Amino acid sequence: MNKHILSTLLFAGACGLTAQVPFGNVRVAPPSGPAVKSSFHITTDGAAAGSGASSGIANKNQEYLLRRGIVPYSFVEIGNTWYDLQSNASVGNRVLLYPDGTVSATWTTSADEGSTTFPNRGSGYNHYNKTTWGAVKADRIETTRLGWPSIGVLSNGSEWIMAHDAALGGFVLSKNGGKGQTNWTPTAVLKENNLRPLWGRAVSSGNYIHAIYTYADSSQPGEPRAPTRNGVLAPMVYSRSSNGGVTWDKQAVMLPGNDTSRITNGGGDQYAIACRDSIVAIIFGGLADDVSVWKSTNNGSTWTKMIADSFKYAPYKSTKLMLDTPFTNDGTVQVLIDRNGKVHAFWGGSRMLDDDNTDQSFSFFPGYQYMGYWNEITKKSQIIAGGAAFDRDGNGVNSLSSATTSFLSNGQVPTNLNTVARLGNTSALRQPSPAIDAQGNIYVTFSVPIEGDVSDLDANYRDIGIVYSTDGGATWKNEQNLTQTMMVEDDFASVAPDADNFVHMVWQRDLIPGTNLQNNSTSANNHEPVKNQIMYAAIPTAKILADAIGHQWGLGIHKANQPAEVFVVSQNFPNPFSDKSEVLIFMDEPGTLQVDILTLDGKTIRSSSEKLMTRGNHNIQLDGKGLKAGMYLYRFTAGKNVVTKKMTIQ
């Protein structure tokens, strides 16, 4: 098999599997498409080409956002950014829920419209005071170029945000005077001489701040090389402060078992951290690694290592052949501590292949779609979500385009493709983010491409899905679609680890699948820098548990192929008009819609191609350009249902 093939069509369906650990009763299809060569390239900065904003981007955002299906909660824009890469793998700790229901959030931001280097990149921040969020903006809280922020709160009520300095290495810890306050004081912390610590994750409890990170590695003259510790190149390390970040009594600690017995390198963002009171949990993964979990019950003084999912070929060596396409994880891992102090682990699933032991690489299947789960109570792995649940045409698989699972080849879009949309070495279904409520119900969100919802360059747009458990993780129920957008990319979701009556979620949204930072070709300019919205939603847990969110648009299990009904069609507005006019419709069921403009005697003069529409409200635009003044008809056809109304061109 050629490891340099850069496309794959591999989907989760109802076929048998053989795995190195028990995976419960969920059945997943074996690899059936070409594998692709892995790459350990990590994007740290904004060195991507582009010509600036798309013309009319604000209008496009408005137009497409109105096409969202019905969900029982509102989406709120809390920020925006021209820098669009929120993580190389696992999502960060970016949402802070207070007991009184107020919320703070952070993200990597940049107000540098049209830039390719994003010199003003830093930490975005906003706060919800139980009435409103602050002003929507892309400004950073710091004065130097930073990224990859985490957020927390100390015993005195001051909030902190910790972000990395990509140029110099190390981290900056910024504090405000209390929740919602915008006066931030930055302090450099966790610097190491002649090294570049980066890609941090941090959490806090009381005055303890716990951080994990790894190191950039460069072979360029004058650039620092990453350290090797316990035989592990650029390892993931742990640091701790017991006084709110003033000093760090533990720095760059290698956790027990973080050595070459199972691990070869640290991997940027292939880890996550959580804490609850004095309990701290860390998770680490990667394509050629176990899913490893460390737990401390004494604020990080001592640690116990557990293997949540063992990779049969760990530690990976290029001399090992892997012809049985073993199950593995894609490095998008997350960890949760429940209210009884037990650890729960989540990861995006993948499979690997190495049919050539003469080189230093392996291949993997980026179209794979499942989420793995483990907890320290049962100590058994299982699959809790799969892409087949997002099937729209009823054939049992979530079919994706080649562009969705492909990556740039030597900086170029592969031959026969117009774009690419894969994020690094991650799988199609990726980036779990968990939460738990006071009743012990567990919720976990994830990112997944949606079948049939494709861009004009033929890449699938992503939505945010969710699954839940009401029995402590023993069983999992009913994938649901939280965002339900068409022609909009929803990705990089992060939720507050504690849920009240809501799951509090923040994510990034734009109009192009993939990211400018990892998927834009300088020659094709297929993903120019555009303004990305940072969105927030408070999702009612009662609606999740009642399966009331569902998928609503375009799923085979919801009879996507049945004829739709146009339940309501409003009169167009404005009317009369000369250029553009809009009509509000309500689709009673998902289905195809055709729009025609006719003369009064019934002659069709303009006709749209059929478009698959979601259940719910849509604003349809009528184009009057080039039409002579007078009266016309517009006709909406959905299945056997036809609605015709008059309009006037002036």
Assign the CATH topology of the largest domain: Neuraminidase
Mean pLDDT: 86
Radius of gyration: 25 Å
Low-confidence stretches: 1-30, 40-68, 554-562
Shape: globular
- End-to-end gap: 63 Å
Description:
With 650 residues, the protein is mostly beta strands. Strands 1, 20, 21, 22, 23 and 24 form a 6-stranded antiparallel sheet that branches. The model is unreliable at 1-30, 40-68 and 554-562 (pLDDT under 50). The longest helix is centred in the N-terminal third of the chain and has 9 residues, at 57-65. The chain contains 3 helices and 39 strands. 3% of the residues lie in helices and 38% in strands. The protein starts with 35 loop residues before the first strand and ends with a strand. The protein folds into 2 domains: 36-557, Neuraminidase (6 Propeller); 562-649, Immunoglobulin-like (Sandwich), CATH 2.60.40.1930.
Comma- or semicolon-separated keywords:
650 residues, mainly beta, Neuraminidase, 5-stranded antiparallel β-sheet, 38% strand, disordered N terminus
Summarize the structure.
With 650 residues, the chain is mainly beta.
SSE inventory with pairings:
Layout: E1 36-37, H1 57-65, E2 76-81, E3 95-97, E4 103-109, E5 122-128, E6 147-153, E7 159-164, E8 171-175, E9 185-189, E10 197-205, E11 208-215, E12 228-229, E13 232-233, E14 237-241, E15 250-253, E16 271-276, E17 279-284, E18 291-296, E19 304-309, E20 327-337, E21 343-353, E22 363-364, E23 370-375, E24 382-386, E25 430-436, E26 442-454, E27 460-469, E28 477-481, E29 489-495, E30 502-510, H2 516-519, E31 532-540, H3 541-545, E32 566-569, E33 580-587, E34 591-598, E35 604-607, E36 611-613, E37 616-623, E38 630-638, E39 641-649
Antiparallel strand pairs: 1-22, 2-31, 3-4, 4-5, 6-7, 7-8, 8-9, 10-11, 11-14, 12-13, 14-15, 16-17, 17-18, 18-19, 20-21, 21-22, 21-23, 23-24, 25-26, 26-27, 27-28, 29-30, 30-31, 32-33, 33-37, 34-35, 34-36, 34-38, 38-39
